[in-house]
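Input set for joint prediction.
Command: fold jointly, output tokens.
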Amino acid sequence: METTNIPGYAYGQVNRSPVTLAELELLKQTVLFSAADVAALAQAGQVLAPQTDAILDVWYGFVGAHPYLLRYFSLHGQPDGAYLARVRARFGQWIIDLCTKPYDQAWLDYQHEIGLRHTTAKKNLTDGAQAEPLIHLRYLTTFIVPLTATIKPFLQNGGSSTDEVEAMHAAWFKAVTLTATLWSYPYVKEGQF
Amino acid sequence: METTNIPGYAYGQVNRSPVTLAELELLKQTVLFSAADVAALAQAGQVLAPQTDAILDVWYGFVGAHPYLLRYFSLHGQPDGAYLARVRARFGQWIIDLCTKPYDQAWLDYQHEIGLRHTTAKKNLTDGAQAEPLIHLRYLTTFIVPLTATIKPFLQNGGSSTDEVEAMHAAWFKAVTLTATLWSYPYVKEGQF
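tokens >
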């Protein structure tokens, strides 16, 4: 995928995260993240990359079927189609990045940027969107479940063994939880993250 | 389990949650929670109840093996044994309640109380503990993974079929994510939960 052509995708060009690499290391330990997960995610990246559009169809179908979710892409009940399309391209890149990027300073910084783009600090700005000014935190956390549950059939499409699918799925769950946690930073009262 | 003998366990006797039942219903939809999950959790409750102590041994072993987690039960590096013991009894009851209680107003209210007891608002008060005044939110969210991953062997101990174990595990994951979400409320800036 040619990442530089994705509007608003600014990986490697954003401000530093307030979370340190040392703190990230402890979060990785807490979600039981190991070298085996890095390898399983690399394999998942290969399996998922050609299916990105189909995955996004499922996720956008889920959002579109639930007005209380679609509202975050809407203003006064009117969805912003251009906004939905621009976010979709970055969401697809997020799948690949989650599986293949090293979880280093640049990755950490970009997780914070993604978090900010869900809040009043930066939502809609990147895309000039006409939409609600904030996605409530409760949906970032609860989305861990649909993002984890719906990925399994796609992991099973790659011709991998059952054990490999289980390993990829477990690693994906850890990675999604890690990012949802990092994305929550801008929502939290000072000193309580 | 005789719940009334658990120190600090105040189910049904706490203040009203700021989250409404209508909002809870949308969170349940977001984690794909269905009537089948209620049934699977009821079965899980029967499987897990006699294993509560063994489960808590695993979870306390995890916390005890990580100084950055044990510190939340400690002050100036000194763990508070009485606090650890009192929390353990309630944590065991939480396993049972998560599986067997209806997710009604009383349940919703108690999730908020549990959230508050992780923050400066109420931490240590219930138990007269000598410990850090706050558990950082990032560990509530990341704990979704170890609480979900470590429960599976215990679900497998009940003589249930593979499909039943998968259903119980999926329902447990949804329930844990739902509670972690509700527990985050007191940490979040006004209007952003």
